[in-house]
Amino acid sequence: MQEPFVLFCAGEDSGDVLGEAFVQSIVQRGMLPVGTGGSRMQNAGLVPIAEFNELPVSGFLDVLPRTAKLQKVCRKLKDLLCSEECKAFIAIDYPGFNMKLCQVAKKMGKPVLYVAPPQIWAWKPGRAQKLDGVNLAVLFQFEKEAYAQKGVNADVLLHPFLLHENLYHTLPYSEQLDSNEKTLLLFPGSRLSQAKRNMDLFLRVSEAWLKMPSPQAATSKKVKLIVPRESLIPSLESYIQKIGEAERQQFSVQVSPEDSEERRMLFGAASMALATPGTVTLELALSGAPLVVATKPDLLTYALGKLLVKTRTFAMPNILMKKMLIPEFIGRRTKKMVPQILAAMHNQDIAKSRQLAVSLTERLGKGFVPDCFVDKLFNG
Asked: CB 3.0–4.6 Å: which of 4, 170, 199, 292 could bond 239 by disulfide?
């Protein structure tokens, strides 16, 4: 790299969503963004230095077989970070890489911005001190307070799902109530290994949901499997081929829209959503979609999580509201979980889902836009 650039590191689809606006901000300043990021960041102008599909991982057991490839990418990022042409570093989530890269950047005296830094309120609070002196952009006020308790300053980033105006004017509530078609959205996970672990559970629930009698005789039902990247489709479609032919005809697979307004329209029109814990649960809740959260973690992650994770809930809407408003099912016994998930779906209420969307927006509606953080990164 022979011209000045700003290095980016995002390794998850949620980080790609967050990073898009920051790449745009760098480009608008006439600077070159280089690093790792997905289609959103690349379409905004990021020059990629690695294949993004290789980076998303879920759980300890998923990392092990890909260690060599991941280490190679990390070394390449370190080399770019150490070059004279690198003028700043913007880290986005992905702590396995970014905590190490932040330390390198700090030693070299280069300005650093960490977007969505480690969730010290959930586990490993000692990581806060390692980020002292780094510009931190957290997504929630309680994260800012958690870092402040450790003597580290952080500012709240306005959630990208709330950057658009007219949040509620676009929600298709009237169509949802009047439609004769009921749609179940499935979000089995953004990492391939995670999605594969969840597919058996999610398909069992979907088949049972399709067979349940509808309140209206004319109502038709559909299931949409939503994936973050097109590369995931072939692997997950193979699972759908295993279910009954009649149910298979009611399934479709769709890549999640990149535009947040389009995602809000898709999510808000759903009759029900089943999703793994993660960023998508907050977007679904902000869209007013009735939601149930479920996942089957790998065995090692499940065991360590029970020992180390401090939170009683895992879905971000529940964490933000400090109560279990969205049912959560996290475990390894998928057959036992199916009737529990179906019962929870039956008890979900559209009106309460709308009210949760309003309450969450009130909590998340304050924060700085990405340009403010980029200005601070270069101007102090």
From this structure: 199
